[in-house]
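Q: I have 464 residues here and want to know how they pack in 3D. Can you give me a structure?
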Amino acid sequence: MGTKNLILLGCILILTLLGGLFILPGRLADEIGIETPEFLKKEYKLGLDLQGGIHLLYQADLSKIKEEEREDAMNGLRDVIERRVDFFGVEEPLVQVQNMGDDKYRLIVELAGVIDPDEAVDMIGETPYLDFREEMPEKEKKQILDMMPEETIGQMIKNIKKETGEKVEKKDLPKYFPMYNPTKLTGEYFKRARLEFDQTTMSPYIGIEFNKKGSKIFEELTEKNIDKQIAIYIDNQLISAPVVQEKITGGKAQITGQFTVEEAKALSRNLNAGALPVQIEIISQQNVGPSLGEESIEKSLVAGLAGIVLILLFMILIYRFSGLLAAFSLLIYAIILLSLFKLIPVTLTLSGIAGFILSLGMAVDANILVFERLREEKKGVGNIYYAINNAFFRAWTAIRDGNLTTLIICVILFFIASGFVQGFALTLGVGIIVSMFTVMVVMKFFMKIFGATKLGKYNKIWTR
């Protein structure tokens, strides 16, 4: 077999063992008495249907919004709701805009791990609030810094030195932690924001506009803050802090910076969401209990394990020694895929588990294509080793085309569909990519190293 191949095989076995420990849920490993290091105890991220949580449905009142601005207003509102939920530490919230037709929009919010509906409604709150703030005078900044405990000041300086490597003193802190005072300019006076492009450089910027009263306030604000920042806040979170270059009259201004087109779009959308009076009213709420999730996981695991065992038995009985090697490569495939689900991490739902099991079946299909090709190639060949390369080479086009078409469908579903369908498309798509790797690399390696041994002389044990 060769020393190099033996070392590679040993490495694969060790990695397979470590992967097997990693994919075990931490709680399950503790229950069955397996001692694993802390870094291997990372838990899977479970979706609403498995972990339990709450599903909220809101109706948006767009009666005061112009028809052409409604979609942007809803997308901006979605972004603000996501920020609010993220602020409360809810992992992987699902916030979607649903167009019901006839200019009726709804907002769907799913929060995994949150069971109390009142808590969820409080998280989301009311219409987002937009306001503009000006830099504090140096005297006020000094007063605030003097009131802060020395331990806090020391920790702030330490963090800045660690991140920037710069020498920092207490008086320099406002440079790294800007401080702002509220002004009279709020979303009440904001008219609109829109994405625009510089005609010379074609770089994106955001054009903003205020109503008549807001224009006067904005003019006074820019006049006394030249070469200073005016900060833009939505829900008390800093969105942008452009520097005022000159006094601005007429109520129109530009926010420029090193924006990508997508960043500029998002900022424009968020500004409009904070300004537009989009009221939302809860019309439905539904709790999903964790007991339902536990039952679903148990049934899914039983179904998945039963399917895997039957597949492995089929492969070994029909394709003999090749089937045995395929069984081991499929085990590696499952370990790699489940490890990726933990590392990325992928939020697992029932539909996602279904995508994983389906991708396992497609991995088996690829093995069968190789074995059937091998059955033809081995005719008249004394040693199976010489037929293996041809079998993989000739089977590759069928494996590639079959998996590529399914992968295209997965991409379409992921970007066009939503919710559970997205989860199914993601796990199936990742599974297809991993399955092609395990068949064309891992499986081929196994067959070639064993085909080069004395086993390669016994053609009958390799396939049906």
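Q: Anything worth noting?
A: The first helix runs from residue 3 to 23. Residues 4 and 185 are 72 Å apart (CA to CA).
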